[in-house]
Amino acid sequence: MTDPGRYPIPARRHRVEEVVQRSRFITTLAHAPDADAAQAFIQTIRDEFPDATHHCWAFVAGPPASTTHIGMSDDGEPHGTAGRPMLTALLHSGVGEIVAVSTRYYGGIKLGTGGLSRAYSGGVVLALDRLPTEEKVDRRPVRITVGYADVDGIQRLVVERAWVLANEAFAEEVSLDLLIPADEIEDARRLVADRTRGSGVVDVGEESD
Fold first, then answer.
1. Phi, psi angles (nearest 5°) of residue 74
2. What is the CATH number of domain 138-204?
3. Largest CA distance in the chain
4. Is the dihedral of CA 154, 155, 156, 161 positive or negative?
5. Of 9, 99, 11, 10, nearest in space to 59 by CA
6. Helix, strand, or coil here: 36?
7. pLDDT tens across 38-86, in order?
8. How far apart are CA 97 and CA 102, in angstroms?
9. Partner of 69 for a Cys bridge, out of 61, 133, 149, 208, CB 3.0 to 4.6 A?
10. Which one, of 200, 6, 27, lies nearest residue 124 by Cα?
11. What pLDDT does 132 receive?
12. Measured between alpha carbons, how far is 73 from 70 in angstroms, rounded to an integer?
């Protein structure tokens, strides 16, 4: 089961090309954290290949297999022969926040509905096979407030856990503003309590949309 706070996303744009029955299929994958980013990427591909016959596309702008923010288009191909097979391949890929555009230059031979579905889904599967990915980590803003006697121990804890330190403020007490993986929040509460003998305060900020 995929951890909703940690999952692979495209590390960079990736492209493959195939010729199927003289038609040229260029499949390009990219990171799409939201639907607007996906649509912007689709437009860049249209601009890159303005003379192509079709630009079919699909995106999953969320965690792997999530259907909350999805989209697809056959872009003039017979209904259900391009966008839907591409989306199905993305939803089964285990990769989140991803958009795929399949650019077709028609080669003069009709592929039929089955042939088109295989060509469009196959291009996505081929591109996914060698797609470079990186881990997305859902981080939450957390403020840890401690007395001066405990600052060194908490600073070492931040380094040990590779938490992101955004800011430090030194007043009557010391406040550290951090970005901590969502699945480590309870660990943070326990570890801070241990290292400050219960005096440290952990405040968790609102989850970003």
1. -85, -15
2. 3.30.70.240
3. 77
4. positive
5. 99
6. helix
7. 999 999 999 999 999 999 999 999 999 999 999 999 999 999 999 999 9
8. 17
9. 61
10. 27
11. 95
12. 11
DSSP 8-state class, residue 108: S
Specify the 3-state DSSP secondary structure of 148.
Answer: helix
Contact 154, 200 (CB under 8 A): yes
- Indicate whether 199 pLDDT > 70: yes
For residues 182 and 138, give the distance between their C-alpha atoms in angstroms, rounded to a whole number.
6
Q: Is-same-fold flag (6-135; 138-204)? A: no
Digit-coded pLDDT (tens) for 114-123: 999 999 999 9
Which residue is it, tokens 């290292």? 195
Which tens digits make up the pLDDT trace of 132-160? Answer: 999 887 788 999 999 999 999 999 999 99
Each domain of the chain, given as residue ranges in start order, spans: 6-135, 138-204
Question: What average pLDDT does the chain have?
Answer: 92
Amino acid at 122: G
CATH class of domain segment(s) 6-135: alpha beta
